Amino acid sequence: MRTRIVSALLATTVLAAGCGGPGTTTAQQDEDPVSGGTLRYAVRAYPECVDAAVRARLFSGPEQFVETLTDQNADGQIVPRLATSWEVADGGRTYTFALRDDVTFSDGTPLTAEVVRANLDALVALSEEGHTDTPVNSALGSYLGSDVVDEHTVRVRFELPELGFLRNASDPYLGIYAAATTQASFEDRCEGKLIGSGPFVITEAVRGQRIVLDRRPGYNWAPEAVSEHQGEAYLERIEFQVVPESGVRVGGLQSGQFDVIDEVPATDQEALKAGGAQVVFGTIPNLNPGVYHNPYSPLGSDVGLRRAISKAINREEIRDTLYSPDYPLPTGLVAASTPLFTDQSDALAYDPEGAQDLLEADGWVLGPDGVRTRDGVPLAPKLTYVAGSTRGASQQDLELIQQQLRQVGIDVQLVPTTAAEESANLKNVKEADYDFSSGAGLSKDIDFLIGLFRSTNRRLGDFPDPELEKQIDALDFAENDDQRAAAADALQRFLIEQADWIPVREATRVFATAANVHGYRVDPYGESVFYDTWIGQ
After folding, report:
1. Helix (H) / strand (E) containing 521
2. Would strands 286-293 and 436-442 be described as parallel, antiparallel, or unpaired?
3. Strand 4-6 to 83-89 pairing
4. Under DSSP, is residue 72 helix (H, G, I), strand (E, B) or coil?
5. Domains of the chain (ranges plus CATH)?
6. Strand locations in 381-484, DSSP E?
7. What is the pTM of this model?
8. What are phi and psi of 66, to 5 degrees?
9. Which of 176, 191, 224, 479 is the most buried (most CB within 10 A)?
10. Neighbours of 486 (CB within 10 A)
11. Which residues, listed in sequence order, are joined to residue 104 by a DSSP beta bridge?
12. Alpha carbon of residue 286 to chain centroid
């Protein structure tokens, strides 16, 4: 049996973004932090659910009110949070966590091993009911149960090696709530009736409009590796205000109506900097936003066509035309910040000649109108996307890709859909009327590829692909770090080679803060963290 002890790490590196390019924190000033005040945060959208475990993607609220067993520092290292140390045994099938003994939830109840067990059991139950998001399903897919060793020691058991669990345990989708929350209904958790141990407490949640968090009195257990101070948060209140229009968010920051805004368009970033605002970038470890195929579609299932599409996409033109050089280019299947990322820059290079060669070899003949045909049928695949969504390749991305593919004879038909229509397509992929679609996938660990590319994923509709399943099994059943790294590399290369996923760009979130906002941080998951934030004069 292989055993590894991990002790507390008490140092971290802080990166400053200031008014420049990618970074993780706002620049620090030569001022003493000021306690008090309300921070007004304008966000593009209200989360589907307030609880991260049941779909709160791209919502920074959980980072303020719920805490996790582990955390990640600026270098991506796993560091302690609610757990002070841990032991990994049985090839990643057993994790034993020693918990802090000074933590309480906002209802006054203490953090205990029994509470941790209740949280994990509750998440598995929610997953079995179909309520949890993909990251939870992946992280707890082989969960067997938890044992209370003593009041502050809990042992978590898995049927299969889960070598990425420490990183998964650092994300709010595996956040630890009070016992009362573990007994709450899915509906209550979704609406924000959550009792956490974080530095802020939810005091109001009005769907589609706002979420209000108030400072928690007596909070004094911030993770030292990722925090600049100890004790209560500086801010007295945080108001998340839903402002869908980017122009209104930007104008509100410039006028002083808002203190922080999210999803800042590239076209507004220079003007904000010139006005004294700080622009902060966050790259999300994930499956890069891109295009995937319907495996039941004759066009979508054509590997030669998929490869040609990938070669015909000019990703640098997309970045430089729609964004700016501050944004990273996609260099692999997953973001470069994802642990065990494999660089495949060469495979994603713009190669229109190579694309045309593949299409010719596939029997697609260029017609006088510039569109290819085969057996009299024009090459006009349908590509769906959710109108207005920032997940996946955006409408602007796809419109430029449409122009690029037209240059090699592919006449892509862009089909906007609603979220409800997309959901209906995914419920019956075999009968759905699309060839390709836009998407992305969020996670902090490479293991999330297992759930995303298993045939049981609803996107694939149980379509059999034995070779892909073999590649996934190698990662899923890896017994040690070396096996896991090799399997992760092989799976990423296979998916790009087969064009099972066609990356378009890296998922980069851009935030802006007013000049008097200090100590603002973006975590490794691309979410805002306000514990160290304060508002100057």
Report:
1. strand 521-522
2. antiparallel
3. antiparallel
4. strand
5. 19-39+200-216+229-282+509-537 (3.40.190.10), 45-198 (3.90.76.10), 286-506 (3.10.105.10)
6. 382-386, 413-417, 436-442
7. 0.84
8. -125, 150
9. 176
10. 14
11. 110
12. 6
